[in-house]
Amino acid sequence: MIKCGRPRKGEELLSRDRLLDTASSLFLEYGYGNLSLETIARDARVSMRTIYNQFGGKAGLFGAVVRRCSDQFVTGLSDEHVLERSPEDTLVFFAKQFLRRITQPDVVRMRAILIGESPRFPDLATQFYEQGPQRTLDHLAQFFARQQQAGHFVVMDPHFLADQFLSALRSERFQKLQLGLEPTPDEAEIDVWVRQAIGLFLHGSLKNRQGSTSDTTVEPCVRNP
What we know:
CATH topology of the largest domain: Tetracycline Repressor, domain 2
Helix content: 55-70%
Shape: elongated
CATH class of the largest domain: Mainly Alpha
CATH superfamily of the largest domain: Tetracycline Repressor, domain 2
Number of domains: 2
Order of helices and strands: HHHHHHHHHHH
Structural class: mainly alpha
Radius of gyration: 21 Å
CATH architecture of the largest domain: Orthogonal Bundle
């Protein structure tokens, strides 16, 4: 029997996932500039019109691929997860998800493609930053703002806190990973990486006047009066 009318919601989601899976694989294989929408539509078994209606074009489709990846990070900062954990445990949970994903070979390669082709395709750079790094940064800043209201963190720009935390996580080691100078870390290495970065972020690196490590958090700024 021939099906008529609009597809069911479940079928639409499956079709979208198939399209994003296909697009992700093709972007990795061909890069951005050398890949046509016709190729994506053919391999994903969807129409060109579907791609334009749902994503607005190739840059929007690439942004949707990046956004789906960033979904893994931001869900760890949702209210329901935060309420179940201490601030430190929430940051550990988020950081492990973050590092697991950005250190995967396909993600490292996708970032390399982006860096190489973004000067020719400004829309590509915009979609990547807005749907990936910016979205992650904003959700993390909201987390810090809520924790500041609860009295867990010093009063300072939550976006600055989020930026510094992500910078501490990525570190020089991620730069070496992108250059192929480090292998993909395993779960144990990620655990050490995360706990060292979070320990430094939360407690600082200064010693107290007696020369022993301080038991209290070293505040990076003065609290507002």
